[in-house]
Amino acid sequence: MAGTVERTTDTTRCPCGTGEAYGACCARFHRGEADAPTAEALMRSRYSAFALRDTSYLARTWHASTRPTLDELRLDADQRWLRLDVLGTTGGGPFDDDGTVTFEARWRSGAERGVLRERSRFVREERRWTYLDGEVA
């Protein structure tokens, strides 16, 4: 389901893997109704944005110092994001200014399958979390 844009509604399970309905989970962040309260919540909402191909949300939540242009942020139309597993976090809470989230994201593109393992860094400025960069393992 995670990579199937056309089947995601407010009542279907959120692609980020929390088990919540999309409307009660990442949709509120994607729609700009709220900001993610933690680095992990932002990371999960960004994963959902990749799965749903929401490049404007990805750009909006990327730190200005490392943000690619929208032209550079083209997503592979054949790639489907299948599952997210958060392996660990450091910092990134509501009172922190930085944090990391280590995760594995499983994907499929045609017959090819793979796993992206990353330790992502996030910073909070003016009470808003943004993705700074990541170290792929």
Please summarize what this structure is.
The chain is an alpha+beta fold. The chain has helices spanning 27-30, 39-52, 55-60; strands at 79-91, 98-109, 112-125, 128-136. Residues 38-134 form the YchJ-like middle NTF2-like domain.
Structure description:
This protein is an alpha+beta fold. The protein has a single domain (5-136), classed as Nuclear Transport Factor 2, Chain: A (Roll). Helices cover 18% and strands 35% of the residues. The protein contains three helices and four strands. It has a four-stranded antiparallel β-sheet with strand order 1-2-3-4, with helices on one face. A hairpin with a 2-residue loop joins strand 2 and strand 3. The radius of gyration is 14 Å and the shape is globular. The model has no long low-confidence stretch (mean pLDDT 94).
Keywords, please?
single chain, 137 residues, alpha+beta, 3 helices, 4 strands, NTF2-like_dom_sf, UPF0225 protein FMM08_15495, YchJ-like, YchJ-like_M
Indicate the topology.
Elements: H1 27-30, H2 39-52, H3 55-60, E1 79-91, E2 98-109, E3 112-125, E4 128-136
Antiparallel strand pairs: 1-2, 2-3, 3-4
